[in-house]
Amino acid sequence: MSTTTEMQVRGRSHAFVPASLAAGAGLLLLVGGTLFSEFMFEHHDLAQKSDPWSLFFMQALHPFGLTGLISDSPDHQIGAFASDSPWLVLLGLVVALVGIFLVTLLALGSLAPGRSTVAVWVSSWFATIIGGGLGGLVVGVAKALGSTSDNGETYHYPEAVVIRVWMFNGVAWGFTFGAFIGLLALLVWVVQRPSVGPVPGDSSYPPSR
Is 89 within 8 Å of 67 (Cβ atoms)? Predict the structure, then answer.
């Protein structure tokens, strides 16, 4: 096995645990955030508030809509941009988690183990944005295809607009919470940092001065 191939294998194996924990953290944030949002809408009527907390943070907590298990979407939300389907939430959740895991694995697998700490954080954050966007994209497509009127529009909005809004919901979730997921991946990356030493077969170590 060549030195380059060995380094690639080491990088992928080193990236598996951070990628898995990043996806796990995304799962907790998405499920917890969605149920927390439903609880708040049900008991605190946040739909009537217009403060920044409600408009930004609370909306970012449930990028794929509400499950309807605790509370339905607020009455003022337009049907095309609201969802009370647990199946749509589950669809977005699965796609987002797979996206987060794969992109994080690929990104961190290309980095040298034990180095590039800032790149680990940024890559994991970016992977969360991509995963959230992909989850929102499939939810938007399902929402548009499942409620299309005869004139090709959904709730008087073009299908492309509905899909784009849901995709941006996922992107906003990833941007808002991806930094925290990235910090978790970075922590694991540093904890399992290997000792700096020669790669087997690498005659260039130690580096020339």
Answer: yes
pLDDT tens-digit readout, 5-53: 444 455 567 889 999 999 999 999 999 998 888 887 777 655 555 566 6
Residue 18: cis peptide before it, omega within 30 degrees of 0 = no
* CB-based contact 156:39 (threshold 8 Å): no
Return phi, psi of residue 61, to 5°.
-70, -30
Task: Count each helix (H run) and each strand (E run) in the chain, helices first.
Answer: 6, 2
Structure tokens at 21: 């924990």
- Residues 6 or more apart whose CB falls under 8 angstroms from that of 203 comprise none
Residue 89 · residue 64 · CB < 8 Å? yes
- pTM for the full predicted model: 0.78
112 half-sphere exposure, CB direction, 13 A CA radius: 10
Return the domain boundaries, the chain.
3-191
Closest CA to 69 of 49, 53, 83, 59: 83
Distance CA 52, CA 39 (A): 19
Amino acid identity for residue 122 in this structure = V
Give every residue of the chain whose pLDDT is below 70, as ranges: 1-12, 44-55, 71-84, 113-115, 147-156, 193-209
Whether the CB-CB separation of 63 and 135 falls below 8 Å is answered with yes
